[in-house]
Amino acid sequence: MSSSWERGAAAPPGVLPAPCASKVELRLSCRHLLDRDPLTKSDPSVVLLLQSQGQWVQVDRTEVVRSSLHPVFSKVFTLDYYFEEAQKLRFEVYDTHGPSNLGCQDDDFLGGMECTLGQIVAQKKMTRALLLKFGRNAGKSTITVIAEDISGNNGYVELSFRAQKLDDKDLFSKSDPFLELYRVNDDQSEQLVYRTEVVKNNLSPAWEPFKVTLSSLCSGQETRPLKAQWDCVNAKYKQKKRHYKNSGVVILADLKFYRVYSFLDYIMGGCQIHFTVAIDFTASNGDPRNSCSLHYINPFQPNEYLQALVAVGEICQDYDSDKRFSALGFGARIPPKYEVSHDFAINFNPEDDECEGIQGVVEAYQNCLPRVQLYGPTNVAPIISKVARMAAAEEHTGEASQYYILLVLTDGVVTDMADTREAIVRASHLPMSIIIVGVGNADFTDMQTLDGDDGVLRSPRGEPALRDIVQFVPFRELKSASPAALAKCVLAEVPRQVVEYYSHKELPPRGISTHTHEACPQRLGQLGVQPVSVSSTWRSLRHPIFQSPPVPTWTHL
């Protein structure tokens, strides 16, 4: 195994990207709670509810803090976090009169707060006002929620072993040694972690470096003992030879520890998601005044463009602090000269194409329809290139601070396929992902070529994309699904794409020092990894080979 991974190569066994689902801890405190007790102060506790299929379901509750209007709760809520889901939470604060672990009807409601887990994660520390029924403020009462990623174990080690002067066990040739590495479990049983390759006919072998996750190596517990085992002993030598010391020496020649950063690490480090939507205004959509048109505005049922826009946008908006989104159109004749444009602001403000929130994008889209003439062709390369220029400017900052998502909504196969492929390949080098949703019943077979799931996308010149940054989804396959299911499908690949980009650029999350990092091995594949320096004790570790146990046990990892 080589010491570095080439792009597209399989990861070493057991070494996988940090999962997109992460564990998050939420810690709570309140200030200036209402005092409902006539003789003493309130005895507050907080109930956490999660929305599931439109219903609020209680997940957990804190302990009761006696006689306090400014409680800090020791109880920690632990939740699974998914970027592609809108995980709606509700925190309800009560003045508790019954048992501390159970609510009762006599508890007084002191206020509540609703938000998404994504909003908490993006801010890391969020303070909101508590509201009573009908949206009334609960005085000056506030609740503060602090998020912490506890996924842990997102790392791996690269180990390099060699040996010197091993015993010769073969009659007509030299020994063929190999090495086995075990971890010692809590019950003292042993579990094989790695077996090296066999080095033929060599008494001083140098085994190939290998990588193994901290989870596999020691369950993320740095003090867990390890055991190295080899089949190279000579029982007779120690009995017969007076000055016998050992049957050779095994040396841990090198050890490198790599931190594998997750998507959540980058988000909690302050990385913002810049969301842009591009809408197809070509004539193939049909006259918007006709109920058969894909752009028809039905007051009772949003069209497919709006359904996809809202489903994806409502997830992304949690990760953009200013909640302003670029909204572009292509394929229409636009005022005042009614010339065809493949890159225009649907709010008709070329100096500022951003809209206030997802609702602002929806309103701009609805106001745009009667003012443009649907035309063609379906050229998307200009808009991809425009967003890529913004992403390129961000790249020069050298920080993991802004990542761009372009949502393209179209009713047909793009006309400028060659230019689009070229634009995507260039964009694959930038902090950018492209989501294409095909609306209507057109044949989208050719669009699948833009999605790199079936092979590496190449430009017309043959240049391969650095990363797979395109996700194509035909809306009709999810038409009967809920908006949440649509968003989950469309956004599922984004966390991996974010981590891949910052991994390739060797950029850690903001706020993490890189001064102690060693030189990063070339091209680390799909993991967001950064190497961390290790002690000289590990680098020079040597241990003689004895006839039988005790075997070397290391507790420094």
TrEMBL record:
GO terms for molecular function: calcium-dependent phospholipid binding; metal ion binding. PROSITE patterns: C2, VWFA. Residues 1-130, 137-265 form the C2 domain. SMART domains: C2 (SM00239), VWA (SM00327). It comes from the Eukaryota. Keywords: Calcium, Metal-binding, Repeat. PANTHER family: COPINE (PTHR10857), COPINE-7 (PTHR10857:SF6). Belongs to the copine family. This is Copine 7. The lineage of its organism: Eukaryota, Metazoa, Chordata, Craniata, Vertebrata.
